[in-house]
Amino acid sequence: MINIENGLVLHGPELEPIKSNILIEDNLILEISPHASGGEKIDAEGCIVSPSLINSHVHLGDSVAKDVGDGEPIEKLVKPPHGLKHQILTETSPQTMVKSMKSSINDMLSTGTTSFLDFREGDLHGLELLKKATDDIPINALPLGRHKSFLDPNVELSQVEKACHEIIKPSQGIGLSGFGEISDEVARTITQICHDEGKISAIHVAEYEKVQKESLERTGATEVERAIEAGFNLLIHLTSPLDSDLKLVADNDIPVVSCPRSNGALSVGIPPIKKMWDMEIKLLLGTDNLMFNSPNMFREMEYALKVTRGLSKKYFPPKEILKMATVNPGQVFKLNSGCLEEGRRADVMVTQQLSMDPVLSIINRTEPGNIKALISGGIIFSGKNNVFLEEK
Ligand SMILES: [Zn+2]
Question: Checking phi first, is residue 108 left (phi over 0); if not, alpha (psi -120 to 50) or beta?
């Protein structure tokens, strides 16, 4: 048992600050109360106790191409199958890939992230590499796979079905790069299987204006309209949606992952987070491609908060940004975490309180060195020589 004592706990789905202890048994939160006692003590006096962070969109494999190709157009960098990142991935040995992914997982742990949704390339082999990279680390890796046959314009649908079943078995579902590379028919086949198997079907949409325009010219529908029509249950980006797209997403209650730092890095715009939140769209936050960004959710949250205020010229509540990195993905991905309540998985972060406002303390000011303890599924990590290790 672990007892986190005397911290300012951001409690429940609304992250209400209360002074309390948290008692953890095995991998679950047993009790939240000022009177909870027993167990190995973590002194959280002067600290904030919050849910640990969830990164809802990352391409971990791209750790091998950090800051490569800066300034090149987005299609040249990431579009399959010939984009720069795909060339680099093909040339990288499996050992180098695993080593590089491990190092990025360490970066995530050192910045408070204990769960991440990864767009995994390289078919089944790609999923195996992620498994190797995470095998001895109790981080909650949630991979979405894909298969090269999805991109083949002459593919038989029966082949897509077979590949899809193969990929979703060891993963949380399918994550696709975009409508530029697959047909609507293939997309529908994939989403139907994911739906039947209770898995996630995700796709990048409306990442930049050009893809929306091309989609409209070629098919008469925007990428967002096609994604909803095809039945995807998770949309990534929506940096350049039409107002009618947003209405469709809200009406169909489809969650959206915003990646503002990635969009900023690629000069493609800033997602309309305030507008989407006003329309009650469920919003999540991701750091996207390791090529352009570190997987540091503190940086992503601060950027998201400030560009949202700058873009909308309106106040945006910091709590909603923290929810995009905790409570909201916990609900969408049915993780039983992202929220500090009794009976939830013990994914907890203890950080020094650095300002009067606990949420802004986390978003504006917290650095890796301010994390006093990080607990993933009841297991305590500690930072030693900048490497996060499980405490024995
Ligand atoms: Zn992405």
Answer: alpha
> Is the pTM here over 0.90, yes or no?
yes
Distance in Å, CA 311 to ligand 1 centroid: 22
- Ligand 1 centroid from CA 42, angstroms: 37
**Distance from Cα 45 to the centre of ligand 1, integer Å:** 39
Which numeric CATH code is attached to 53-332? 3.20.20.140
Distance from residue 208's CA to the centre of ligand 1 (Å) = 12
CA of 286 relative to ligand 1 center, distance in Å: 9
Angle (CA) 262 266 272, round 5°: 60
Weakest mean pLDDT among 44-53, 70-79, 185-194, 336-345: 70-79
How many angstroms is it from 58 CA to the middle of ligand 1? 6
Beta bridge mates, 3: 23, 41
Which CATH superfamily includes the segment(s) 2-52+337-390?
A: Urease, subunit C, domain 1 (2.30.40.10)
For ligand 1, an ion, list residues with CB under 5 A.
Answer: 288
Q: Give the residue extent of every domain in the chain.
A: 2-52+337-390, 53-332
Reported as a single tens digit per residue, the pLDDT across 128-164 is 999 999 998 989 999 999 999 999 999 999 999 999 9
Q: 133: which 2 tokens?
A: 């990279």
Domains 2-52+337-390 and 53-332 share a fold: no
Q: Is the pLDDT of residue 384 over 50?
A: yes
Q: How far is Cα 130 from Cα 221, in angstroms, rounded to an integer?
A: 35
